[in-house]
Amino acid sequence: MLIALLTDPIQVADYTALFPNVSFPSDGPDAEWLAENNCKSVSVWKEHDSTQKLIPSEPYIEGDWVYTVQVVSKTDDDLVAEKESKAAEVRQQRNRLLAESDWTQLADAPVDKTIWAVKRKALRDISSQDGFPFDVVWPE
């Protein structure tokens, strides 16, 4: 459990490193102990939406917490990279599903080839869906 010792500058570390000679309960220091010892809990996460990202920052106090990240808007490069990564992930899954169903196209496969041909075409056309790559409807 990371805690912050409210000095100048703020020191962030595991509570056992900051206070090596103190015996703590198994779940670490409680809020009362933190307040008595000029400390606060540390968070490495902040709420953010899909247009934002977290970046590391110098520790800062906000309410009852010390944060070590800031929320910033994603850059155009971030958004492009995210879309390309997601598209590659979807295509990889599509390719796996196609490979797993290759046997259905063998001449002696005991399946309805028309149904499988339609499903396989839908898989091949995944990348032309309107919501691709973030909102993909997979064929059943």
Number of strands: 5
Largest sheet: 5 strands, mixed
Radius of gyration: 26 Å
Helical residue percent?
A: 25-40%
What does the average pLDDT come to? 95
Q: Count of helices? A: 4
Structural class: alpha+beta
Order of helices and strands: EEHHEEEHH
User: What gap, in angstroms, lies between the N and C termini?
Assistant: 45 Å
| Dominant shape | elongated
> Strand arrangement, largest sheet?
2-1-3-5-4
Percent of residues in β-strands: 15-25%
The low-pLDDT segments are: none
Per-chain topology:
Layout: E1 2-5, E2 11-14, H1 15-18, H2 31-36, E3 39-43, E4 52-62, E5 65-73, H3 76-100, H4 113-124
Parallel strand pairs: 3-5
Antiparallel strand pairs: 1-2, 1-3, 4-5
Description:
It contains 4 helices and 5 strands, in the order ββααβββαα. Strand 4 and strand 5 (65-73) form a beta hairpin. It has a 5-stranded mixed sheet. Helix content is 34%, strand content 24%. It is elongated. The chain is of the alpha+beta class and 140 residues long.
In short:
With 140 residues, the chain is of the alpha+beta class. The chain has helices at 15-18, 31-36, 76-100, 113-124; strands at residues 2-5, 11-14, 39-43, 52-62, 65-73. The chain contains 4 helices and 5 strands.
